[in-house]
């Protein structure tokens, strides 16, 4: 009915849309809360129990059909670019409705099923739409990413998202919308690993593992009887989980800072001068929020870049104050150990005070305490 030659295109598209919406609800109900591991060739050939074989065949069928469904959703999301869907020419209203359905489906899957397989396939569809020209679609995609950032306890999914966004920004600096980078501000990262701390944690975990392995059977029984072995194993598991969280959070911040520094270091992004670049304000806001995670060896170079920005880049007052705030955050943390004179920033703040008095649209006092907002 959805692909007959003489069927009206409106009927064809309506049937396809209903099929997509129904399929989404089915997948939302049957997708497991874990990622299905791909079996090796040796595992595929080995003998297995009947129940295991049935489960394996079911999982493989689920993966095949789910991947096909994601490809269909990708077509729906991109139908506006081709003005057709599955060889059916679309009117503007049909384009809009099909695309919106596809966007709502992929963003729901990303927000609620990001732990399952083919997460990268979802990201390849969603991330470009985070800079889409339509504000509604753009916000839906960005909000789904923010949902993942808030609910992802381990950080692995967040890292995949950040890595994909950073790659998009690197490849398309002038097409990247500020709303895309604003999602980084929703990351709940409180700690990252330093190099020496990372090595020490790994050594401690390996030492505890080795100690447990080297125990004799008698010692293990004694430990179990005293409930110490279980406590040690639980502690070890907690330490490993914490290490994994710190590892992913460290990787996330590394990706984000790479984008931020790339923007600050360039005089132009594409054909745009830096002070006209639309992503610069959100980059400065991000730097001011995450400045305490920056490694100390980058402080001197970053502070020079920030000072050059406020003195030479002809920024507006808000952007300039965010530069100053970032510098002060750096100098109030690990930067206290460095012999850096903040005179240039102090001088700029005093010079900009008359401009702050003239502009009443923004409550600038909040910039030095957190996110600024419209008054």
TrEMBL record:
Q: Matching InterPro entries, A to Z?
A: ARM-type_fold, Noc3_N, Nucleolar_cplx-assoc_3
Its signal peptide is none
Checking SUPFAM superfamilies in the record gives: ARM repeat
Nucleolar complex-associated protein 3 N-terminal domain mapped to chain residues: 12-69
* GO terms under cellular component: nucleolus
Look up the record and give one Gene Ontology term from the biological process aspect.
Answer: DNA replication initiation
Where are the annotated coiled coils located? 219-246
PANTHER family from the xrefs? NUCLEOLAR COMPLEX PROTEIN 3, NUCLEOLAR COMPLEX PROTEIN 3 HOMOLOG
Q: What is this protein called?
A: Nucleolar complex-associated protein 3 N-terminal domain-containing protein
